[in-house]
Design a protein that fits this description.
The protein is built from 13 helices and 13 strands. It is an alpha/beta fold. The strands form 3 sheets. Strands 3-2-1-4-7-13 form a 6-stranded mixed beta sheet. A 5-stranded mixed beta sheet has the order 10-9-8-11-12. Strands 5-6 form a two-stranded antiparallel sheet. A hairpin with a 2-residue loop joins strand 8 (163-168) and strand 9. The structure holds adenosine-5'-diphosphate and magnesium ion (MG).
Length: 374
């Protein structure tokens, strides 16, 4: 089945690395065949972190990073193919999200910028590569994000239950899936997911993230700080909306600190910020939700999952693993699906989600090897 297998590459705002997933679309439900996680080397990660916040960027270095990430994504694909003993000729296409280094969907000349040159991925792997998904949606008047809701709907919509898919990546986003198919799917970024938790843990603990939320769980929430953080107008702004590191970064937190706080209590407060802002978004925009399915790396943060469950009770809150899909695989699977949509000439965006004027076929197509059997 040459046209049934796709590879999704997802590298999100956490800047942790790239999740590569081989997906089979033969059956009604897509099936993950193999996965490979390729972390960013520490030096690359720290350069990307700096780049995300720098007011001035050297164009030469930006172009080099575009190439370096393209090579890294191609290597991730090769490793995925090797470990799963898959012939590249059996893969119809790769869908590559790329690494966002700027996301400015509002204001004059709105834009979003992802690095990871797809020419290199196509050239090194010989596999047709679809990339640059977000900019067409922005050109059509949308936020360019989130793009995963159409896939969430295809995979998880249920005729008997009102579901919400919650993706806890660097940012957090929700997809509202009403059981009544006459009601459109909606979704938006709720605000920070792991990004502040990661940043604060790195600064005070020297670890890339707070495993299981254990450090946060040992601290006490600072109510006044939490109130000040929740007062950011992003949280109550109406959708469509999307956000990134441009808005939610450690300087944003520091502006609200008095300087005397215990770092562990700040971590507890940041965890509560994510839990509260997510729960508030669901209460405001999906009040009749029966269950919340959580994906993304944050699903591995037990303390965060527990607080989200607490705020959303009595609704059921659980990992997508309960529905047969690894939480870390969902977004990569979405980009495999989006690549397939593009090759089929089908739209990938949902105007009710992104605010685009119309549905549109997303991304650019970078053809793989000539004369391959596909
Ligand atoms: N065991 C864990 N405990 C706490 N947090 C975790 C755990 N595993 C992953 N994470 C979080 O998930 C993040 C990566 O999530 P991911 O879905 O890849 O986000 P993104 O799409 O932004 O790259 C990590 O940076 C970390 O914050
Ligand atoms: Mg990631």
């Amino acid at each position: 089945m040459a046209d049934a297998r796709y590879i999704g590459l997802m590298s999100g705002t956490s800047l942790d690395g790239v999740d590569a997933l081989l997906v089979d679309f033969t059956a009604a439900q897509p099936r993950a065949i193999a996965s490979h996680y390729h972390p960013y080397p520490a030096e690359l990660r720290s350069e990307l972190l700096t780049l995300c916040h720098a007011s001035h960027i050297e164009l030469h270095r930006l172009a080099q990073l575009d190439v370096m990430l393209g090579e890294l994504y191609a290597a991730a694909v090769r490793e995925l193919l090797n470990t799963s003993r898959t012939d590249a000729n059996t893969v119809a296409a790769i869908g590559s999200h790329g690494q966002t280094v700027r996301h400015h969907p509002a204001g004059p000349h709105p834009y979003t910028l992802q690095l990871g040159d797809p020419n290199i991925i196509a050239e090194r792997t010989g596999i047709t590569t679809v990339a640059d998904f977000r900019r067409r949606d922005i050109a059509a008047g949308g936020q360019g994000a989130p793009l995963v809701p159409a896939f969430h709907a295809a995979l998880f919509r249920h005729a008997g239950r009102n579901r919400v898919i919650l993706n806890l990546g660097g940012m957090a986003n929700i997809t509202v899936l009403p059981r009544d198919t006459a009601i459109p799917v909606t979704g938006f970024d709720t605000g920070p997911g792991n990004v502040l938790l990661d940043g604060w843990a790195a600064r005070h603990r020297g670890t890339p993230y707070d495993a299981g939320g254990a450090w946060a769980a040992g601290g006490s929430v600072l109510p006044a700080l939490l109130r000040r953080l929740l007062a950011d107008p992003y949280f109550t702004a109406p959708p469509p909306k999307s956000t990134g590191r441009e808005r939610f970064h450690l300087e944003w937190l520091e502006a609200q600190l008095e300087g005397t706080e215990d770092p562990q209590d700040v971590q507890a407060t940041l965890l509560e910020l994510t839990a509260r802002s997510v729960a508030q978004a669901i209460a405001d925009h999906a009040a009749n939700a029966d269950e919340i399915l959580v994906c993304g790396g944050g699903a591995g943060n037990g303390a965060l999952m527990q607080r989200i469950g607490f705020h959303l009770a009595p609704r059921a809150v659980h990992s997508t693993l309960h529905h047969g899909v690894e939480p870390q695989a969902v977004e990569a699977m979405a980009f495999a699906w989006l690549a397939r949509q593009t090759l089929c000439g089908e739209a990938g965006n949902l105007p009710a989600v992104t605010g685009a004027r119309h549905p549109v076929v997303l991304g650019g197509i970078y053809r793989g090897r000539l004369n391959a059997d596909r």
